[in-house]
Amino acid sequence: MKIWDVNPGYLSRQLLLAEHTELHSIHQLIETQLDGVNQMKPSLLRWIYHPAALALRHAAVVEEMRLRGIEHKTAMPVPTTASEWPSQEGDWNAATQYAELADKGQEGRIPLPVSLEILWEQHAYSVMARDAKLFKRLQIQVASKEIEFDSLANLLVDTLRRPCHQHHWDMVVEGMWEPCKQADEAMDYSSSYQRPNRLIRGIQYLASEYKWPELWHATALCELSAAVRVN
Q: Do you know which SUPFAM superfamilies this protein is assigned to (predicted)?
């Protein structure tokens, strides 16, 4: 059992449910003042001293479960402020996690990235919601291949752990709504257009119904609903 660093959208249903169970197991250890911590694997132990980050990871996993129609009943308090996250492990970082998922032959909502360009496309909305300058820089670096796949993969995990800028978050949600306008049900959400917090739910629903790749294969579809936002 593991807690992954890559977006939950890449996990198969089996791995997604297994991680959710593990998140609650670690949360329980924290609640019981670390009773049994000595028996934990290093890959899980790194989360023990980051309970707020654990809760934020749980929130992203729950959003992914919702997208796939998996019922969720076990709440975990979600922090509303930025948190310190455990560092990625040298031998089991984002790049190696994609390779491990490929070896398992299990795919989730988001296809495993087979190129630098695909990896970037899948994360573009998520990066834009946090840092417009970084978004532009990475666009250039990916287009010119100035950055390697492994470096980008690890950077993206760290970037998605950062809080979103509220203004950027709003703009990204509005941008994600554009493909949704073609749906017959779009009018049902017209009253939410000026309320991004409600609009994101409409985007999630329509993306799950129509499976448009630019949305269904985006990390933002689950994680933006769980991300901490700052002004």
A: T4 endonuclease V
